[in-house]
Design goal:
This protein is an alpha+beta fold. It has one helix at residues 31-51, and strands at residues 4-7, 13-18, 55-66, 74-84, 88-96, 102-114.
Amino acid sequence: MGIEITQWDVQEMIGTMPVKGNRQPFGLLHGGANAVLAEQLGSVASAMHASQFNSIAVGLELSCTHHRAAREGTVTGVARPIHLGRSTTTYEIVVTDEEGKRTCTARLTCLIRPKPPGA
């Protein structure tokens, strides 16, 4: 996928992903690739939040709305929290193209669970 996280913070997780190698048959960025980028950013941020409770974060729900196509270059995802609780987190992830145009809006909710024994 070529995802690179460029900013690590519970309040704002940022990452990039190349369009090349992540296209569907019509030459557009695959919607599933947007979902992977969103899940990666939101899950890592949720895991960072969960760590303060000696817990882990697991994905519960992901929804993506694809607004416009990206055909080349790199897309950037920015994950910001909507809710940071002890049992769930919810992040909004906005994906934009190199011109700063929004290509996808995603929302990820993660469940915060106790860390399993031995983990």
